[in-house]
């Protein structure tokens, strides 16, 4: 299993929360390096898809919600 977090230059502080987990190797923190700053959800998703190593990918955003057992099912 792999967890990727794509930071698209947001200002919500998520990269600060994720950074310690990335240092421990529990997640991979990817950063948008676009000179224009935020490139939006499609760009962030495409970056994550390009760099994901798994066969099955679940993409979600900060406001995504789903049932606790969704991934298992």
Which structural class is indicated by helix and strand composition?
alpha+beta
How many strands appear in the DSSP assignment? 2
What's the mean pLDDT score? 86
Low-confidence stretches: none
- Tell me the overall shape: globular
Note the run of SSEs as H and E: EHEH
* Helix count, DSSP H or I runs of 4 or more residues: 2
Proportion in helices: 25-40%
Largest sheet: 2 strands, parallel
What is the CA-CA span between the terminal residues? 15 Å
Could you give the order of strands across the largest sheet?
1-2
**Gyration radius from CA atoms, angstroms:** 13 Å
Strand content: 5-15%
Q: What are its keywords?
A:
73 residues; 11% strand; 2 helices; globular; two-stranded parallel ribbon; 2 strands; alpha+beta
Please explain how this structure is put together:
29% of the residues lie in helices and 11% in strands. It has 73 residues and is of the alpha+beta class. It has a two-stranded parallel sheet with strand order 1-2. Strand 1 (4-7), helix 1 and strand 2 (28-31) form a beta-alpha-beta unit. The longest helix is centred in the middle third of the chain and has 11 residues, at 41-51. The relative contact order is 0.20.
């Amino acid at each position: 299993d792999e967890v990727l977090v794509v930071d698209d230059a947001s200002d919500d502080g998520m990269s600060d929360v994720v950074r310690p987990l990335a240092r421990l190797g529990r997640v991979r923190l990817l950063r948008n390096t676009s000179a224009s700053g935020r490139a939006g959800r499609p760009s962030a998703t495409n970056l994550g898809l390009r760099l994901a190593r798994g066969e099955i990918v679940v993409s979600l955003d900060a406001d995504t919600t789903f049932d606790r057992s969704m991934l298992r099912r």
